[in-house]
């Protein structure tokens, strides 16, 4: 037979509390009806909502996706370099393409409807998921100071902002930072400076590699009246090296596959260089930034008697 010790007492008469439990609380839970050994499951329930699509996805696929956010305007202003001239810019997110082009006016793209009284239009000279512009006369008194609000093709309205006067200035470029070759805002970072370009050369070299550019191509069937269908699967158009080259003794130019795309531009506009091509694209618009390079081009076939034609897009993005 064995006896239990009472906390070290030898007299058997000491009143000793068991400090592992309270005198008044049964932590097993029997006193309260709750078993504290059964802890609550704090794991969050899964979020069953579909992920919000990207700007680039919503740009052309908003109808199929069905859950694209309303357009969001960050700012609007009158400024320089809307396709080479002055114009009204709108910067923000989730601007949608109307998937249709004004075929009798240089294939201008349809997109969000500008609800400003002096614009009242849905065609633009430049249209992308984060930046749109329409060319105007060089008159800030007419093209600034009014309210700008957009309505996307899916019917959703943006916030309203006042168009500012930034005459003589270039637009701030809203970059998405993706590597999607067909995202028109993928590499819209600040254009590469001469200092950034010089830092890429290892003395005494006269050329510096930026990387290998894989140019993708995709097409879709369109109609001048009913608009465009979905794009087919992308294919590879070309794979070319992109380099910087000292030229004229002091200048630096961008080269694509050995062809000159022109010298570095001091402009902070959308198109910083133009790269010639022997392929069907003819040439590529290029934006060269301090950490990336983006190429793009859009081509159309002739419009048939029934309104049908083909749109082909080319695009590439590299980071360095």
Give an overview in words.
A hairpin with a 2-residue loop joins strand 14 (251-256) and strand 15. This protein is mostly beta strands. It is 6% helix and 38% strand. The protein has helices at 55-65, 140-143, 194-198, and strands at 72-82, 85-93, 101-102, 108-114, 121-123, 126-127, 131-135, 147-148, 150-151, 161-165, 207-223, 227-228, 235-247, 251-256, 259-263, 273-276, 283-288, 292-300, 308-319. It folds into 2 domains: 55-165, no CATH class; 194-319, no CATH class. It is globular, with a radius of gyration of 31 Å. The longest helix is centred in the N-terminal third of the chain and has 11 residues, at 55-65. The chain is built from 3 helices and 19 strands.
Question: Counting H and I runs of at least 4 residues, what is the number of helices?
Answer: 3
Describe the sheet with the most strands. Answer: 9 strands, antiparallel
Overall shape: it is globular
Oligomer: single chain
Write a brief structural summary.
The protein has 320 residues and is mostly beta strands. 6% of the residues lie in helices and 38% in strands.
Structure keywords:
single chain, 320 residues, mainly beta, 2 domains, 9-stranded antiparallel sheet, 6-stranded mixed sheet, 3 helices, 38% strand, disordered N terminus
Task: Chart the SSEs and their pairings.
Elements: H1 55-65, E1 72-82, E2 85-93, E3 101-102, E4 108-114, E5 121-123, E6 126-127, E7 131-135, H2 140-143, E8 147-148, E9 150-151, E10 161-165, H3 194-198, E11 207-223, E12 227-228, E13 235-247, E14 251-256, E15 259-263, E16 273-276, E17 283-288, E18 292-300, E19 308-319
Parallel strand pairs: 1-10
Antiparallel strand pairs: 1-2, 2-7, 3-4, 4-5, 4-9, 6-7, 8-10, 11-12, 11-13, 11-19, 13-14, 14-15, 16-17, 17-18, 18-19
